[in-house]
From TrEMBL:
One of its GO terms (molecular function) is transferase activity. Its cofactor is Mg(2+). CDD domains: YdjC_EF3048_like. The keyword Metal-binding applies. This is Cellobiose phosphotransferase system YdjC-like protein.
Length: 236
């Protein structure tokens, strides 16, 4: 068993970027995924170049900020993505979404990453929206087009970033014991387990874009644990 700790939301803000960088360089974070439409995107690209980061993927976005394309069916009157983290309910309530615009937007996000930092390491998405059933055919085509593994890809028939995915390291479950529980759960299996995380320092941009801020600082503290780093459980 090997644990892959992925830090989501690279690029959201400078403070988020620095937190993820420390969690990767000092702590147990194995990889990160980058948002391509956020205030900290260009800063994140600079860090990739300056620090020689290689395990950076794309965190596909459809529920925060502005699109990179002229995606009229995806935006509200302010030009922001109209879907929220309640996208399934919104979709069922007759939100009209053009699947081709979704695909074009995600392709553009990946191509923007490539232009800044080369080939991504893997793909996942903000609020797991790539696993939403109407969008599964889209992520399958994109995964195959760019030859990239996907978070929980084995659920939808494409190359998967890890054998299993765990998203419970969040809010009240942010403690060292969480990793011990995961190690006990999978300890006898010759498999890889991806664990989602959101480490960050806090700045005004993070607080504007996310209701989850203080918890990210708690995550960062745990992910920098020397005891966890010395456990031998984590792929780096």
């Amino acid at each position: 068993m090997k644990l892959i700790v992925n830090a989501d939301d690279f690029g959201l803000s400078r403070a988020v970027n620095y937190g993820i960088l420390d969690a990767m360089q000092i702590g147990i974070v194995s990889s990160t995924t980058m948002m391509m439409n956020m205030p900290g995107t260009s800063h994140a690209a600079d860090l990739i170049d300056r620090e020689g980061l290689t395990k950076v993927g794309v965190h596909l976005v459809l529920t925060s900020g502005r699109p990179l394309t002229n995606a009229k069916s995806l935006i509200n009157d302010q030009g922001l993505f109209k879907l929220s983290n309640q996208f399934a309910l919104e979709y069922e309530n007759n939100f009209i979404i053009d699947p081709k615009e979704v695909e074009n937007e995600w392709v553009q996000q990946i191509e923007s990453f490539i232009s800044l930092a080369g080939k991504p390491n893997h793909l996942d998405s903000h609020h797991h929206i790539h696993l939403f059933k109407p969008f599964q055919p889209i992520i399958k085509r994109i995964s195959e087009k760019f030859d990239l593994p996907v978070r929980s890809g084995n659920q939808i028939g494409v190359s998967s970033y890890a054998d299993y995915f765990e998203d419970g390291f969040y809010k009240h479950a942010v403690e060292e014991k969480y990793f011990h529980r995961i190690a006990n759960k999978y300890g006898t299996e010759n498999k890889t387990i991806e664990i989602m995380s959101h480490p960050a320092y806090i700045d005004n941009v993070l607080m504007e874009y996310s209701s989850y801020s203080d918890g990210r600082l708690n995550e960062l503290s745990i992910l920098m644990s020397k005891a966890l780093k010395d456990s031998g459980w984590f792929l780096k």
